[in-house]
Amino acid sequence: MVEAYRPSSLEEALKIRADKGALPFAGGTDLMVKYRYESGAVPEYPAPVIFLTHLEEIRKIYSQDGELHLGAGTSLAELMSHSEVPELLKEAVRTIAAPGLRNTATLAGNICNASPAADGVCALYALDSRVKLSSPRSSRELAIYEFITGPGKTELREDELLTEIIIPRDRSTTRLFRKVGTRKANALSKLSIAAAARLSGERVDEVRIALGAVAPTVLRSVELEKQIQGLSRAELSERLEHFVQSYEAMVQPIDDQRSTAVYRKKVAVNLLRQFLTSIAA
Ligand SMILES: Cc1cc2nc3c(=O)[nH]c(=O)nc-3n(C[C@H](O)[C@H](O)[C@H](O)COP(=O)(O)OP(=O)(O)OC[C@H]3O[C@@H](n4cnc5c(N)ncnc54)[C@H](O)[C@@H]3O)c2cc1C
Q1: Centroid of ligand 1 to alpha carbon of 19 (angstroms)
Q2: Which atom of ligand 1 is closest in space to residue 179's alpha carbon?
Q3: Which of 110, 84, 82, 108 is nearest to 96 (CA)?
Q4: For the whole model, what pTM was predicted?
Q5: Domain annotation for the chain: domains and CATH numbers
Q6: Is the pLDDT of residue 159 over 90?
């Protein structure tokens, strides 16, 4: 027997979350796998579950002050068909699972599951996104790289729900998203890259690079990005191998059932070099 709640407002949902320690349930595509002990059996959840995706307050997608707000209850399919969602995120989401699953799964679930191989999360790092966390008493915002702290670990408090994902306007002029998996559909990433850069004339004004499945969390180095920003394309070209090697030192993948550490590192570094070369060229 699963104890489940279907609140009629966000306020009620937050109260149930705080009072019952209820487990947030969005599309359930990670949760049902995680707590399924045998084929055909009802999953055994460690706490009551609370359904969220029907709540109107978290089903909105809107722009405010130049930033896009994605309600935590919107499905991956809904965000893919929205005109204001950045192309980099759409490209990443298009590679998640298959259409049927994207009709029910959410980006909020992809974030809170906190897998280093989560494809939507990789793009959100490169888009400098934030999450809004709400509790019955208050709300706060964290950068996505502050929110996710390790494999399966986040800063979500016991009385909080993730209610919005906030994405600054994407002003990049060059973008890359690549996922390397066994198949095109229903295959988790062996590794991934999401990268965006803004060039004005010969200068690199802004760059953000995120690598998925090569470290305990999606890997992004704000420090290295600062070193690249402000360089002319010729200067970047001269120092390209230095930057590639600096990233290579940070790439620390593991061997698992999907790939080997050696393969992951080699291909991640190749894709990184390809992106840097494309902006230096
Ligand atoms: C066959 C299959 C293929 C898959 N392929 C991919 C893939 O290619 N790439 C990929 O990245 N993932 C993949 N996944 C994983 C999964 O589908 C995604 O991570 C999905 O985005 C999870 O969303 P959800 O709404 O189903 O999350 P749920 O399963 O509902 O929740 C996941 C976690 O987030 C928490 N949560 C959800 N919403 C909130 C909220 N609002 N506030 C706080 N906590 C919350 C839940 O408590 C849970 O811990 C696949 C899964 C399956 C079953």
Answers
A1: 24
A2: 8
A3: 110
A4: 0.97
A5: 4-168 (3.30.465.10), 174-280 (3.30.390.50)
A6: yes
